[in-house]
């Protein structure tokens, strides 16, 4: 966990957490910590691996492939972004090979792909013209143009 993650979860300032994480130099005394601060930091449960709320970055290759797959099926970035709770530009950036993304978003994209890939976008409220436009753009991207 980063100092920012610890601060956010403990409800402390990131400056205080960074100061506490710093190793005292030779001959320097360790920091005295208020009991409430110590309790706040020590009471933070560590996130389990592969938990959707787990912090951290991961490679975006799989998420990019899954979003491209949904685009080929006719799902517009705006509709996907709405379901993911992010901006449509974020969906486009991940699809276009953003190198890394938050683990939480990667897991949400995987779940969204699993839920939507077998569905027809038009039957889910996407206009047929929009679905056709997205499919054509995905085909152009796949062809390299």
List its salient traits.
single chain; 145 residues; mainly alpha; 2 domains; two-stranded antiparallel ribbon; 8 helices; 2 strands; 57% helix
What is the secondary structure topology, with strand pairs?
Blueprint: H1 3-10, H2 14-21, H3 35-42, E1 57-59, H4 61-72, H5 77-84, H6 88-95, E2 100-102, H7 103-116, H8 128-143
Antiparallel strand pairs: 1-2
Helix pairs in contact: 1-2, 4-6, 4-7, 5-6
Structure, described:
- The protein is mainly α and 145 residues long.
- The chain contains 8 helices and 2 strands, in the order αααβαααβαα.
- It folds into 2 domains: 40 residues, no CATH class; 87 residues.
- 57% of the residues lie in helices and 4% in strands.
- The protein has a two-stranded antiparallel ribbon with strand order 1-2.
- The protein is elongated and about 70 Å long.
- The model has no long low-confidence stretch (mean pLDDT 84).
Summarize the structure.
This protein has 145 residues and is mostly helical. Helix content is 57%, strand content 4%.
Q: Give the total of beta strands.
A: 2
**In whole angstroms, how far apart are the ends?**
41 Å
Instruction: Report the sheet-strand fraction.
Output: under 5%
Helix share, percent: 55-70%
Instruction: Describe the sheet with the most strands.
Output: 2 strands, antiparallel
DSSP helical segment count: 8
Spans of at least 5 consecutive residues with low confidence: none
Question: Structurally, how many domains make up the residues?
Answer: 2
Order of helices and strands: HHHEHHHEHH
Based on helices, strands and strand pairing, what is the structural class? mainly alpha
Shape call? elongated
């Amino acid at each position: 966990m980063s100092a920012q993650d610890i601060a956010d979860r403990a409800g402390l300032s990131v400056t205080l957490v960074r100061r506490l994480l710093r190793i005292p130099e030779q001959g320097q005394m360790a920091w005295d910590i208020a009991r409430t601060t110590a309790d706040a930091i020590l009471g933070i449960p560590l996130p389990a691996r592969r938990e959707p709320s787990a912090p951290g970055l991961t490679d975006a290759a799989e998420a990019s492939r899954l979003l491209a797959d949904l685009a080929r099926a006719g799902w517009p970035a705006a509709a996907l972004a709405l379901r993911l709770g992010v901006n449509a530009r974020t969906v486009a950036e991940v699809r276009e090979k953003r190198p890394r993304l938050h683990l939480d978003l990667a897991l949400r994209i995987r779940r969204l792909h699993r839920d939507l890939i077998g569905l027809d976008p038009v039957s889910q409220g996407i206009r047929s013209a929009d679905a056709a436009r997205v499919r054509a753009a995905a085909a152009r991207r796949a062809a390299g143009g």
